[in-house]
Amino acid sequence: MTPLDPKSRVALKKIMLATDFSPQSEAALPYALTIARQYGSELFVAHVISPGIADRIAPESTPRISQEAQELNRRNMERILSAGREWGVSCQPLIWDVLQDMIQQNGFDLIVLGAHGRGGLRKLLLGSVAEKVFRLAPCPVLTVGPQTSEIQSMNVRLEHILYPLEFVPDTSEAAAYAVSFAEEYHAKLTCVKVSEKTDPSPDVAAGLQEPVKHWIDDHIPPESRLHERTSIELGFGPATEAILKFARDRGADLIVMGVRRLEPVMAAHLPQPDTAYEVVRAAPCPVLTVQ
């Protein structure tokens, strides 16, 4: 087996798993553990207190409910930390009121979180902060969305990685993560280039495919066996539909894609969901978004 080229390996020293201990958010736990073990990362388990909860509790009930909640949260946190120890992953607990502050202050290399199905992505585990996380976080974000197939055990398999290629030449940092994950997990890598044309001529299709071939030479080390596991596909029609169709039809285990870097005010007032938002919301597998 060809050793992993250090140049193609991204560094994931500190990973944060954000959870509210709900079943939906804990669907992200197996992914956080397997990635932390694969990359030798330290895993920080962040229990983020959803804002506004205290406001909905009667004052006379607050002490009792608070004590019960704290005990339940303690047991849930210990369960996750115990799972980390079983996996040989160093885990540290974090409790914070504001997720964005936690992200900015701790220098994480990856954030892993799970999504509720209610109300789309904007009703993520921690309230309405989901899109802000993957728009504003200074590191990549792995979102395990509501459509991700249920994992029956802690052992997740990342055997097929789908990388939607937006521009050629490709300067997105997402490319390095797609290659690194494919190398780490000895996975198949599919690069898909989507054209809005719904019925392209053979010449148009050939013209789209040729630049993607150069992407492989530009991003995968020449001595890597990943060349043998990388394929080029073309999709036609609306980008979101084409990406999701490929992911479902080809059984992708992970989608890696770039996301636009936005200022906080702009991120909070997007006129309509874009491709990244829609893919994360509806993907049948986790999505790793990279600014």
Description:
This protein has 11 helices and 10 strands. The protein is an alpha/beta fold and 291 residues long. The chain has 2 domains: 6-144, 3-Layer(aba) Sandwich (Rossmann fold); 160-290, Rossmann fold. A 10-stranded mixed beta sheet has the order 3-2-1-4-5-10-9-6-7-8, sandwiched between helices. Strand 2, helix 3 and strand 3 form a beta-alpha-beta unit. Helix 9 (239-249) runs parallel beside helix 11 (275-282). The longest helix has 25 residues, at 62-86. The protein is elongated, with a radius of gyration of 20 Å. Mean pLDDT is 79; it is low at 1-7, 51-58, 60-65 and 118-128.
Secondary structure topology:
Layout: E1 14-19, H1 23-26, H2 29-39, E2 42-48, H3 62-86, E3 91-96, H4 99-106, E4 110-114, H5 130-136, E5 141-144, E6 160-165, H6 174-184, E7 188-195, H7 202-219, H8 226-229, E8 230-236, H9 239-249, E9 254-258, H10 264-268, H11 275-282, E10 287-290
Parallel strand pairs: 1-2, 1-4, 2-3, 4-5, 6-7, 6-9, 7-8, 9-10
Antiparallel strand pairs: 5-10
Helix pairs in contact: 9-11
- Number-wise, the strands total 10
Stated plainly, the CATH topology of the largest domain is called Rossmann fold
Task: Report the major sheet.
Answer: 10 strands, mixed
Distance between the termini: 32 Å
Q: How many alpha or pi helices?
A: 11
Low-confidence stretches: 1-7, 51-58, 60-65, 118-128
% residues in beta strands? 15-25%
Mean pLDDT: 79
State Rg: 20 Å
Helix share, percent: 25-40%
Count of distinct structural domains: 2
By helix and strand content, what is the structural category? alpha/beta
- What strand line-up does the widest sheet have? 3-2-1-4-5-10-9-6-7-8
CATH architecture of the largest domain: 3-Layer(aba) Sandwich
CATH class of the largest domain: Alpha Beta
Q: Spell out the CATH superfamily of the largest domain.
A: HUPs
Order of helices and strands: EHHEHEHEHEEHEHHEHEHHE
Tell the overall outline. Answer: elongated
